[in-house]
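Subject line: Sequence and fold of a protein, written as structure tokens
Area: Proteins and the way their chains fold up in space.
Start of record: The labelled sequence and token lines come straight after this line.
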Amino acid sequence: MTSMTPRRHGARGAALCGLLAAGFALGGCAATPPAPAPDAAAVSPVLSIDQNARVLEAVNAALAAASEATDPEMLAGRVTGPALTVRTSQLQVAQIRGSADLVTDLPSEYLQIILPATDGWPRTSFAITKATDELQPPRLIALTQDSPRDPYKLWGWVQLRPGVTMPRFADPKLGSELLAEDDASLKVSPRDVVAQYADLITTGDQSAFVDTFEPAEEDPFRALLASAAAAQLRNLEPDNPAIQGTYTFSATPTPGVAIQTVRTADGGAMVLAALDATEQMAAVENAKLAPSTKTGQALLQGQTVTNRLSSGFSDMVALFVPPVGSDERVKLLGYSHVQTSATIG
């Protein structure tokens, strides 16, 4: 992946309005947003489309400058939350490797804008980018403002799953309702659904919540984690007594990090949340377990490999949660899975 470079937008408001008038169907790496829902939220949107375009320009400029300099300190004014954790780690890895090719590309052209309707803080807006230049899926990004005097900052992002059909949202001229973590109008509250999904990707089909979510074969993040686990188990060579060992994976909601939730047109919600994940491997004494990825190798730099290896990941997931009373299951919309630590012992 390549570092992002900002693009200038002429007639920003008009351009975004034009994009938002298109239909939205994500197939493969192409994306078109659904027609906005006609229903107005109870409160007017807090940003105009043109104001939001200026916010996105400022965030993109900060990301581009930090990537060009591979300097995480340049992120502070425009990046926060899980996005700051991930981007800081990616830039540190870029410094070690002498290359920013693993820094997530966040395109600066957009297919859809989702603006909040609220009279309080903190407040969150969302945007869906176009596919990357390498035809990777579009990204869903979230930006938060903590108080009236604070700038909007990039809070997090996920890549949308290929072929996903996104839910519909209120027209950005009207604004979409932001929901509390304990909102009771959904099939599962935002706080509970994040905890349940973390349990699901930790325990798999043994999870008590397996029937709440779409089947495992339809969830690309669960498929990715299963594939990674299988590969690591092969690396441990269970039939070779010189290296055989154990592998475990676990995930929990990131402590102290808010869950971002916005109402969809059908009364459901899109939930964006951060997870902390850990992958642990242990082999027989005197075996050597080295990271298999470029990121892992950079993060472990200076440490001597042993028979134990622990890898930490800062993950983000976007889920669609149906309204209370719905027969639909909770569905993954997108995810981000980025290694941010590697330790021995």
Confidence is low (pLDDT under 50) at residues 1-25, 27-32, 37-42.
